[in-house]
Backbone:
């Protein structure tokens, strides 16, 4: 699907604030409510808009500890990747999980309450996933940039 200037403007506005009304979006891009509504429905139908979410303030939730982990599996084949993908997808502490090229197989972003919580998670749920041979953990000291906005 080809996105025009108006589609991109709508997407930019919704990424900044998904609670904007159709009327508010229309006012900002000089378009009436009906075409704005039709465009949003088309963007949803085509899968460009995947879902609407609420972004939480992690600090207000208790100064949560964020960790990036590099994970290496014992075998680099489809069955090993598939089994790991299924196991990691069940863990709510995992915010992002990407299979990557390079010296390790996965880069994972986790969030837990504190170091004790991470230790429990690591020992009871994470390190026991079959096929893992190495995990390197990196603890976030300062979050310089965190956005969900995709350039359009």
Residues:
């Amino acid at each position: 699907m080809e996105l025009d200037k108006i589609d991109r403007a709508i997407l930019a506005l919704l990424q900044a604030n998904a609670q904007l009304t159709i009327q508010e979006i229309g006012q900002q891009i000089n378009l009436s409510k009906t075409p704005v509504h039709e465009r949003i429905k088309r963007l949803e139908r085509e899968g460009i808009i995947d879902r609407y979410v609420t972004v939480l303030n992690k600090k207000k939730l208790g100064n949560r500890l964020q960790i990036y982990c590099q994970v290496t599996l014992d075998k680099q084949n489809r069955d090993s990747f598939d089994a790991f993908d299924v196991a990691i997808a069940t863990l709510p502490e995992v915010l992002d999980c990407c299979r990557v090229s390079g010296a390790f197989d996965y880069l994972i972003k986790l969030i837990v309450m504190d170091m004790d919580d991470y230790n429990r998670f690591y020992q009871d749920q994470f390190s026991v996933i079959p096929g893992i041979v190495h995990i390197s953990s990196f603890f976030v000291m300062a979050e310089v940039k965190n956005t969900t906005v995709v350039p359009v």
Summary: Residues 5-45 form a domain with the Arc Repressor Mutant, subunit A fold (CATH 1.10.10.10).
